[in-house]
Amino acid sequence: MPTDVLVVGAGPAALAIAAELAERGLAVAVLAATDPRDPWSNTYGIWGDEVDALGLGHLLEHSWSDTCSYFGSGSSDPADPANSPTRHGRDYGLFDKTRLQQFWLERCEAAGVQWIRGLAEELSHGSGRSQVRYAPALAADVALIEARLVVDASGHKAVFVQRPELGPVAGQAAYGVVGRFTAPPVQPGQFVLMDYRADHLSEAERQEPPTFLYAMDLGQGRFFVEETSLALAPPVPYATLKQRLERRLAHRGVAIEQVEHEEFCLFPMNLPLPDLDQPVLAFGGAAAMVHPASGYLVGALLRRAPVLAAAVAQALRANPAAASAELAQAGWQALWPPELRRKHALYQFGLEKLMRFSEPQLRAHFSTFFSLPKEQWYGFLVNTASVPELIVAMLRLFATAPWNVKAGLMGMQGRELALGMGLILTR
Ligand SMILES: Cc1cc2nc3c(=O)[nH]c(=O)nc-3n(C[C@H](O)[C@H](O)[C@H](O)COP(=O)(O)OP(=O)(O)OC[C@H]3O[C@@H](n4cnc5c(N)ncnc54)[C@H](O)[C@@H]3O)c2cc1C
């Protein structure tokens, strides 16, 4: 059967879009370097309200109602009010990776997705169709597959999709451990989104780029603790993060007893949007869909895959002779409409600011941000608020922020001005 859409990749983005396209009756093939059934190594977290709105709460392995962050100055005195947590009042969950993968795999298989193992190498467009040359996993030769449209879902280092070069890309870096500890590293039953306390560091170290602890109780004596740098170019090295994690724990009298799994996390936070007039479409990390202010992606994949698949299916049916460029065009418009592009520009502008903030500024900023009404900070973090709603939230943040944060928000440095202009000019 001729292929309508060839999806490249076998991560969450590839499976999500392949399932949605195939369920709309399209002939879909997935070309992946690895077996799509190979277990994923990343842990994926999501807010409870976000997963509930998608009706997918059953895909979670863990969830927490006791969710908080620490933005105080972090003296070691527990009686110090600066040590009290900011309570988020919203549930947070971790996906069961196997169940999430299975959820998409089963839908792909039921809808007849064809699996091809190989490394995509070259893309060309002839007679209005797309041809992909790939190195098959089980043969020495190069093979060719033709499709009406190619969707590049090969992750952040995308194989085909092109984007403008706009300078250094900031990476979110983290080093984490799932394991057992000599004492609970967080309160039993607790999820900590960001612990910015830094009293385990010297004054000189506190001048270096700040990092925070992301941590959770997994039950039965197991915890996940991860030292994280929100975003930096070049990224904070793993060795620094590991050392900071160990020192943070030691400062609280906690040592790692048994390592079950180590997580090395690095992905780009502010990739420029791809060119929206190219004849190949993209989805997921390849399409710069990671939220530039939080690093989250999975919720966006689940929300946006049906919208994109519907647009592609409609374009294919509307014009059975449509060329790849035309189909990709319909897809890009659905994936990155002006409203989402404006929001992306706004988040990128915000991230640029945060990357310049000192440790006290960051703590004060986040403390103010999470004091906003819950709908406002949640709408910002999950990308469900409209542009006007985001602007209202940001104005409120500015009005209620302390002076050190106001000063940081007002001063324009580096490429902030260009990003701000981009925000105004996005159409
Ligand atoms: C450690 C870590 C933790 C994260 N935690 C979260 C989280 O909690 N919540 C969240 O929402 N996001 C999280 N993210 C961010 C984001 O969700 C992930 O990076 C996500 O895996 C990106 O999905 P993707 O499908 O776009 O790309 P990937 O998962 O990177 O998948 C790319 C796929 O393409 C294949 N491929 C690549 N090149 C080729 C080629 N030439 N030919 C054929 N196949 C190819 C690869 O083999 C792979 O199967 C995390 C990221 C990391 C690294």
Describe the structure.
The chain is 35% helix and 26% strand. It is built from 12 helices and 16 strands. The chain folds into 3 domains: 3-39 and 98-163 and 274-336, FAD/NAD(P)-binding domain, CATH 3.50.50.60; 45-96 and 168-268, Polyamine Oxidase, Chain A, domain 2; 339-425, no CATH class. The protein has helices at 12-23, 48-53, 97-110, 238-251, 298-318, 324-335, 338-356, 359-369, 374-382, 387-400, 403-410, 416-425, and strands spanning 3-8, 28-32, 45-47, 60-64, 66-70, 86-87, 92-95, 114-126, 129-136, 143-152, 171-181, 190-195, 212-219, 222-232, 256-268, 281-282. β9 and β10 (143-152) form a beta hairpin. The model has no long low-confidence stretch (mean pLDDT 93). α5 packs antiparallel against α6 and α7 (338-356) runs antiparallel to α12. The strands form 3 sheets. It has a 7-stranded mixed sheet. A 5-stranded mixed β-barrel has the order 1-2-8-9-10. The chain has a 3-stranded antiparallel sheet with strand order 3-7-4. The chain has 427 residues and is of the alpha/beta class.
List keywords for this structure.
427 residues; alpha/beta; 7-stranded mixed β-sheet; 5-stranded mixed barrel; binds flavin-adenine dinucleotide
